[in-house]
């Protein structure tokens, strides 16, 4: 006979769990994915499938091997695969995209103990791995829509090494060379709107990140427009800044949890990105900036720990 | 006696268990041959210095033992360095400063301090031989894996076909860390299983 159920607090449950968050981010990526399919057609489709397959199969295999609960149901492996594919070039050989997925899950996530335990964003870690392993394949681009195999430079590469500027409208719509999902600013901004509306991400990191880049670009451009041709708007729209600021830097596992910490995190990402873009050897610095700040996230958390009410300085 | 030899090969393997001598381990294992050469050079130094230190262990005053050990080790390192330069110049060039740096390899001073200065010549010889062989084997395994993925070859022999795309990361420092991490993990899994079996039997 069981009349009463006695349970410990909390008694109120919200539907917000890992599954809900992950599904929300995937929904927010739908516009960017559609844009990528429009601009890069079957090339983008195949890379996305290969990358997701790599992630899902690896997660299943490792959890089976370690006799752990299979957590494919929370879709986080699918999200990692999709995010990775969106920051890969469209002409990448498919086995490399698959290998990237395997690396993302095996070395970015499971080796630390699974979801929630990783230090670095798995998708970006896998991209960094691919970048170091196959540098030529990772910097070979194709023309959108026509899919010309002729290597075209990205807008950032053009402005850094060639000097030719790309029209803002192309950058806004995404009709430029670049990684599969990073080209279309409008699609990414739509996703950001959805994530902010559903409160899945906090506005602080993307705002601090994008604002830092804009201010940095404004100052350098104002000082010497010849030497620093990138205007603030150009630096925001070009390259991987938007996808990085909206989808990568806001990863709840690898970014700070405190409000102040998130400002610091975003500003740090922005500074490193601009330093690499302007003075570094590479045209783009979003990936390394976020990975660097990921490494600092635990430290930022500790430094910005809020004071408890009534707490006094230790003697 | 035989235990002294086996110990360095597996249960107290200088790389996989003690995690000593990381500087040459990570730096020179871009190819199996370099790992092998470094391993043999270190093997020579650790065996010779352990034997000499064991012979003079009762004559050395406690206070100056570390400088004395270092001078003995440095003597053999210089010999190994000159030998490589005279006979295998290309390897010596590839290993660069890491041959002279064997002087500060903590495996060697560690064996001198922890074993050779307290035990008989015979046991010290076997202990140093085991440690040197364990170090050499680990470097060969590490070098072979990195060479296989980084160049498609092992000891210079083509293993993977012409269509193989080189994994450049494997010959960069990051590849050394990744490979070493995986190997230590695999080592621990095997060791755990072996210990479990021993417990059942014993």
Considering the chains and any ligands shown, give keywords for the structure.
heterodimer; A: 315 residues; mainly alpha; Ammonium transporter fold; 13 helices; 59% helix; 0% strand; globular; B: 202 residues; two-stranded antiparallel sheet; 2% strand
- Domain unit count of chain B: 1
State the end-to-end CA separation of chain B: 21 Å
The oligomeric state of the chains shown is heterodimer
| Helical percentage of chain A | 55-70%
Separate helix tally of chain B: 8
For the biggest sheet of chain B, the summary is: 2 strands, antiparallel
Total of DSSP H or I helical runs spanning 4+ residues of chain A: 13
Structural classification of chain A: mainly alpha
List low-pLDDT spans of chain A: none
Amount of beta strand of chain B: under 5%
Mass-distribution shape of chain A = globular
Structural class of chain B: mainly alpha
Spatial strand sequence of the major β-sheet of chain B: 1-2
Q: Please give the radius of gyration of chain A in angstroms.
A: 21 Å
Architecture of chain A, CATH level 2? Orthogonal Bundle
Topology of chain B as a string of helices (H) and strands (E)? HHHHHHHEEH
Order of helix and strand elements from N to C terminus of chain A: HHHHHHHHHHHHH
Number of strand segments of chain B? 2
Outline the low-pLDDT stretches of chain B. Answer: none
């Amino acid at each position: 006979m069981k009349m009463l159920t006695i349970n410990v607090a909390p008694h109120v449950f919200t539907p917000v769990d890992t599954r809900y968050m992950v599904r929300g981010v995937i929904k927010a990526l739908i516009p960017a994915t559609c844009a990528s399919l429009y601009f890069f057609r079957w090339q983008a489709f195949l890379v996305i499938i290969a990358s997701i397959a790599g992630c899902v199969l690896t997660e299943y295999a490792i959890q089976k091997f370690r006799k752990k609960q299979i957590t494919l149901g929370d879709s986080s492996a699918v999200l990692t695969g999709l995010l990775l594919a969106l920051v890969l070039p469209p002409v990448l050989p498919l086995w490399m995209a698959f290998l990237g997925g395997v690396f993302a899950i095996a070395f970015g996530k499971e080796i630390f103990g699974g979801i929630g335990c990783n230090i670095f964003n798995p998708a970006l870690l896998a991209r960094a791995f691919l970048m170091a392993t196959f540098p030529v394949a990772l910097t070979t681009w194709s023309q959108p829509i026509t899919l010309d195999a002729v290597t075209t430079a990205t807008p950032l590469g053009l402005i850094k090494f060639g000097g030719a500027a790309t029209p803002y409208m192309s950058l806004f719509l995404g009709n430029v060379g670049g990684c599969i999902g990073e080209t279309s600013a409008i699609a990414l901004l739509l996703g950001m709107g959805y994530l902010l509306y559903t409160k899945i991400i906090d506005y602080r990191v993307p705002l601090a990140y994008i604002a830092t880049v804009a201010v940095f670009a404004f100052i350098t451009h104002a000082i010497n427009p010849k030497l620093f041709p990138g205007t603030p708007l150009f630096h925001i729209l070009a390259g991987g800044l938007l996808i990085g600021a909206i989808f990568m830097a806001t990863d709840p596992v690898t970014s700070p949890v405190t409000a102040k910490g998130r400002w610091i995190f975003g500003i740090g990402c922005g500074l490193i990105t601009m330093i690499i873009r302007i003075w570094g050897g590479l045209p783009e610095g979003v990936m390394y900036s976020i990975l660097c700040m990921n490494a600092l996230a635990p430290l930022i958390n500790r430094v910005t720990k809020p004071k408890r009410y009534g707490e006094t300085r230790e003697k | 006696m035989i235990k002294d030899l086996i110990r360095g090969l597996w249960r107290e393997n200088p790389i996989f268990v003690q995690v000593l001598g990381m500087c040459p381990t990570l730096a020179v294992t871009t190819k199996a041959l370099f790992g092998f050469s470094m391993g043999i050079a270190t093997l020579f130094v650790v065996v010779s210095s352990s034997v000499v230190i064991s012979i003079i262990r009762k004559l050395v005053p406690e206070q100056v033992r570390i400088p004395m050990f270092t001078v003995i080790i440095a003597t053999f390192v210089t010999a190994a360095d000159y030998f490589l330069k005279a006979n295998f110049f290309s390897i010596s060039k590839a290993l660069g400063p890491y041959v002279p740096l064997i002087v500060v390899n903590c495996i060697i001073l560690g064996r001198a301090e922890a074993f050779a200065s307290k035990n008989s010549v015979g046991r010290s010889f076997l202990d140093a031989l085991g440690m040197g062989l364990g170090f050499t084997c680990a470097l060969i395994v590490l070098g072979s894996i990195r060479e296989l993925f980084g160049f498609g070859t092992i000891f210079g022999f083509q293993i993977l076909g012409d269509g193989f795309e080189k994994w450049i990361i494997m010959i960069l420092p990051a590849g050394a860390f990744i490979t070493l991490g995986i190997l230590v993990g695999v080592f621990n899994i095997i060791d755990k299983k072996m210990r479990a079996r021993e417990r059942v039997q014993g």
